[in-house]
Structures are given as structure tokens and as C-alpha cells.
Amino acid sequence: QVQLVESGGGLVQAGGSLRLSCSASGNIFTINAMAWYRQAPGIQRELVAVIRSGTSTTYADFVKGRFTISRDIAQNTAYLQMNSLKPEATAVYYCQATLILRTASGVSPPRNYWGQGTQVTVSA
């Protein structure tokens, strides 16, 4: 069974920083990509940042220059360093991982898995 466990959310004042972590566990053969999404009340879930197996990254325009996504490949963990936080960043942040699993007959096709989400609240 695959698990993605997020941590690091909380309450911070505008201008502050938080670091989110997402650890993947299970019968993982390889991780193709790890990403952070966020969802505020009444708003569709949106991509914040993604890091791929070759360490290339993509950021949403609204976080460029303030957020940094990184990975610890050995620990199957991704991080999202969030600096200069704004109140509009308040949302539940979800980790997504594109995983290939070991199976009895070899490996699975890539599939996306989601964490349970961690709340980030930025006060004005």
C-alpha cells in the first residue's frame, strides 16, 4: 500500500515562511515526479510546483521567486519551502507523486497518488 504523508503546515503571519514535507512509502520502484497542489475554499485545486526525476522544476506564476521545491531521492521525500507568504496562500496543500510500483510480475505503469493534505493559514 502506498502512503504519502505531508507535514509542516500551520499558521504564519504574512511575510513569514513555512516548509512542507511529503514522504512516500510503499512498494515503490521509482518516483517519476512529485508535486504540490493547493486548494482554497470554493476554488479548484491548482498546481503550485512540480519536480521531476531529472530534477527539472516548474512553478506556478504566483509563487515564482518565493517558493522552492526540492527532493531527497534516497528518502522518497519532497519539500516545499515557502517564503514571503501572502494571505492568499491560505489553502490546504496536497502532495502528489507519480509512482511506479514493484509488482509480482515486474513493475506497474506510472500512477498518481495523493496525500491527505496539510492546512496552511497566512494571517494578514
Number of helices: 0
Overall 3D shape: elongated
Number of beta strands = 12
Low-confidence stretches: none
| Helical content class | under 10%
Q: Proportion of β residues?
A: over 45%
Task: Output the helix-strand order.
Answer: EEEEEEEEEEEE
Largest sheet data: 8 strands, mixed
Mean pLDDT: 96
Structural class: mainly beta
Terminal CA distance: 40 Å
Compute the CA-based radius of gyration. 15 Å
What does it look like?
It is built from no helices and twelve strands. It has 124 residues and is an all-beta fold. The strands form two sheets. Strands 2, 4, 5, 6, 9, 10, 11 and 12 form an eight-stranded mixed sheet that branches. A four-stranded antiparallel sheet has the order 1-3-8-7, with no helix packed on it. A hairpin with a 2-residue loop joins β9 and β10 (106-107). The radius of gyration is 15 Å and the shape is elongated. It starts with a strand and ends with a strand.
Give short descriptive properties of this protein.
single chain; 124 residues; mainly beta; 8-stranded mixed β-sheet; 4-stranded antiparallel β-sheet
